[in-house]
Amino acid sequence: MDHIYHLILEPSSDVASAVDYLRQQPQIEYAEPNYVAHALDVIPNDPYYATSPNLKSIYDVYEMEKAWGITTGSSSVVVAVIDTGVDHTHSDLLGKVILGYDYVNQDSTPTDDHGHGTQVAGTIAAICNNGVGISGIGWNTRIYALKVLDSNGAGNFLTVGQAIYAAATYNARVINLSLGGPYSSYIQSAVDYAFDKYCIVVVAAGNDGVDFSATADWQSPVCNDGGKNEVLGVASVSTNQKLSSFSNYSSRFVDVCAVGEKVFSTLPESQYGSLSGTSMAAPMVSGVAALLLARNSQLFASENRDLIMAGANSIDSVNPSYNGMLGSGLLDAFQSLLLLSPTPTSSVDTMTIQQFYSYPNPAANSVQYGNNVVFHLKLSKEPLGLRVLIYAYSGKRLRTMTFSSFSAIVWRTDASGED
Predict the structure, then answer these.
(1) Catalytic residue numbers?
(2) Is the Cβ–Cβ distance between 390 and 399 less than 8 Å?
(3) Within a 10 A sphere around the Cβ of 312, how many other Cβ atoms?
């Protein structure tokens, strides 16, 4: 290595031209760019990963094999599953489940006598590369099991709230709530507590097939955002990215979508099977939230949420009847992890915003009356892609859009300027 030199060029330099020049020098044996290395895709050996009806096709939507090339999770990250309990003796969950509390039977063994909670837990953290069963999203992630729903899948919000408090106090960094009911201020208090403890709360949007944006239609816990998006609402889509017929939707409370149709996962007594619902979509997002925390354990709940939303791919064009009601779009684990861990370049290569202004300024009146607003953005160099997040003055996110062509961006709003 004594005769190997690493040259750092000026940001404005052309790497290819510099390499060509160096190769022409007689005293130089070879010159080449400092190529970027990528982790190879990681493919589990669990038999049902490839042979189940659609598990691999679901994970492919999220680019999971590429994501696993970055991280397969950490045992220090705990996801609380507040549900019907978890079968901690399942062969694909052995050693992964921390027993919390059974609020139904009032004991310390939150056994699953329904199946819903075990199904959720397997999606998040089933053991991988053990040659058995399925592959969870977080290979090393652990589950904190809290039982609030009985053998019929029923419970009450008093115990749900108690479980949220318990999970956050235990320092579970992710809480999965694949349950719902009427709007509850008590649940809002519990969510506030969890959010302040840096815990991201991932919630199923519900299976009524309705828009629940209006105040009269609010539900808990998906609408318990505290006015600052404290919960990550998850709607369900199919693998072809179309909104599931049963899934709720909302311009205010749905933040991201994941596949919730025929999800193959663990069931009690070491069984496996497929279930559908936004309850099955939410743990997909919880699993990715845990992967992000494995890469950076210092993430605030809001930062974790924003990475998931920013990495998602818009599916409005596939769902024109639900434009603006599906959050940031379809979950993409790999893209979210890339945002947290940018790929290094071969030289110091920074991009700066040189100019930004809008006309008219302020833009509010023009948007109010349906006119055009022109935003000018001058960068120090041409980007490979551009992600635009548009917010109202109130702080409400209006739209997330990704572009590869930058001459014109067209976006229409209604008369309120808020949707």
Answers:
(1) 83, 116, 279
(2) yes
(3) 25
